[in-house]
Structures are given as C-alpha cells and as structure tokens.
C-alpha cells in the first residue's frame, strides 16, 4: 500500500515537470576537413570519451546531447557529424537542411585545414540560411590545442578579424583530448540559437547555390575564447 502511494507521488511529479518544461530540438552541423577532430569532439562532448585511434567517418554520423539548460528548459542537440571527405561529395545540401547552428572545425597543427575553413563556410552559407536570409550561427573550433600550433591561429587578433569577415559568431581553441572549451563553445552556440528563436528567425531555408551571395552578411564576432 505504502509502495503504491509512493509511485503515485512520483508520477504526479513527472507529469507536473513535463508540463512546466520547455523542450527544444536543434539540428547542429559539425563540418571541416578530414581528421580535424569532429568525431572526437562529439564523442568527448556526448560520451566523455577520447581515443587516439583515427577511423574516418563515412557520410554522416549522429549523436544526441541533452542539456538541462535551466529549471524550465531542456535542449536536445542533434549533432550531425559530417565526414571531412564530404566537401567533395554532393550530399552536403541534404545534410545541411533545417540545421539551426554549426561548428566548423580545423586542426591547429595543420594550417591547410584552416585554409579550407572558408570553403566549408561558403558551402554552408550557400546551402542553408535562417528565415531572414542571414547565415545560421556558426562557431569556428581550432581543435587539438593541446599540440603545438601552426599559422594564423597563433595570432588571436587576426583570428577575430577573420571570423568577423567570414561571418562566424565566434571561435574557440578546443581539445577533444584534454576536454578544453567544448562545453563553452556549445553553450555559446546554443545562446545564439536561442536568441534567434526569440526573434522568430528559426525557420531555416535550403537554398539553390546559384541564388546566393555571401557579401555583406557577416555576423559580429562578440567573443573569442582560448583557455589553453
Ligand atoms: P573525418 O571523419 O575523416 O572527417 O575526421 P574527424 O574530423 O572526425 O577526425 P577524428 O575525430 O576522427 O580525429 C582524427 C584524429 O585526430 C584521431 O586520431 C584523434 O585521436 C585525433 N584528435 C582529435 N582531436 C584531438 C585533440 O584535441 N588533440 C589531439 N592531440 N588529437 C586529437
Ligand atoms: Mg569523423
């Protein structure tokens, strides 16, 4: 008898809390060159796990991260882990559809992966936008910051300029290996997405490549982060 009463109490609590809680499901893209650490960042973020072993992603993988954002809000991030080799494929238009945010990842030890960031960002902006035509919030991740860095990433002021020019919301140095800045970068992106939702801009559109111009659409970079 006592046991049955307790179950009723728990059920009541669950019902009340599910009425009160707002739930959001956001599709987030993770893109960038081969071997930059996209899968490793997601594995660290979702499963608190890191492996040195490299196994290239084929096509796309998925992961779900549930964030208890505040007492009233649960956020589910559907992370689309897109293979580096997909930039040369023609599936990205399908993968990008209805995304509301993105990470572009490069490897701080290989400056050619930074050189390719512009191509990834342009590809993204030509294939998906917010309802008002502006780019979806995108954060640049300078990954493997536990290693010696090569190129522009050594100059934070130039990185800030680059991000402003290219329409990135901000950038972070990250390490999937040492678990540096991944939570912070994600919180930053989610805040941007929530702001867009408040302003009613969340409906995303898939675009025809030939209709699009990237000129004059840069977001302001209001934060760069490095805790390395
Ligand atoms: P594709 O699926 O081919 O596009 O590659 P990816 O971007 O998913 O790269 P992945 O996460 O598979 O990592 C590639 C290699 O880099 C693996 O050997 C990882 O262990 C290593 N790696 C990833 N992140 C880090 C990091 O933060 N620091 C260090 N030192 N190594 C890392
Ligand atoms: Mg991968």
**How many structural domains in the coordinates?**
1
Number of H- or I-type helical stretches:
7
The end-to-end distance, rounded to whole angstroms, is 57 Å
The CATH topology comes to Rossmann fold
Biggest sheet strand order reads 2-3-1-4-6-7-9
Named once each, the bound ligands are: guanosine-5'-triphosphate, magnesium ion
- Assigned CATH class: Alpha Beta
Shape: globular
Q: What share of residues are in beta strands?
A: 25-35%
Structural class: alpha/beta
Largest sheet: 7 strands, mixed
The CATH architecture can be named as: 3-Layer(aba) Sandwich
Spans of 5+ residues with little confidence (pLDDT < 50)? 1-17, 208-228
- The multimeric state of the shown protein is single chain
SSE order: HEHEEHEHHEEHEHEE
Q: Could you name the CATH homologous superfamily?
A: P-loop containing nucleotide triphosphate hydrolases
């Amino acid at each position: 008898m006592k046991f049955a009463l307790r179950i009723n109490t728990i059920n009541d609590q669950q019902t009340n809390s599910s009425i009160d809680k707002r739930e959001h499901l956001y599709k987030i893209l993770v893109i960038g060159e081969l071997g930059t650490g996209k899968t490793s960042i997601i594995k660290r973020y979702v499963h608190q796990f890191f492996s040195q072993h490299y196994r290239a992603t084929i096509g796309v993988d998925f992961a779900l991260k549930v964030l208890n954002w505040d007492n009233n809000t649960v956020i589910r991030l559907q992370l689309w882990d897109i293979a580096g080799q997909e930039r040369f494929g023609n599936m990205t238009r399908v993968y990008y559809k209805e995304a509301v945010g993105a990470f572009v990842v490069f490897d701080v030890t290989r400056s050619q992966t930074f050189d390719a960031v512009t191509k990834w960002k342009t590809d993204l902006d030509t294939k998906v936008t917010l309802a008002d035509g502006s780019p979806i919030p995108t954060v640049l991740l300078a990954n493997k910051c536990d290693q010696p860095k090569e190129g522009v990433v050594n100059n934070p002021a130039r990185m800030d300029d680059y991000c402003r020019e290219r329409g990135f919301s901000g950038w972070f140095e990250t390490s999937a290996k040492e678990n540096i800045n991944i939570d912070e970068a994600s919180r930053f992106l989610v805040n941007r997405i929530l702001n867009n939702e408040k302003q009613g801009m969340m409906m995303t559109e898939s675009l025809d490549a030939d209709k699009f111009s990237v000129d004059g659409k840069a977001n302001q970079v209001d934060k760069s982060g490095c805790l390395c």
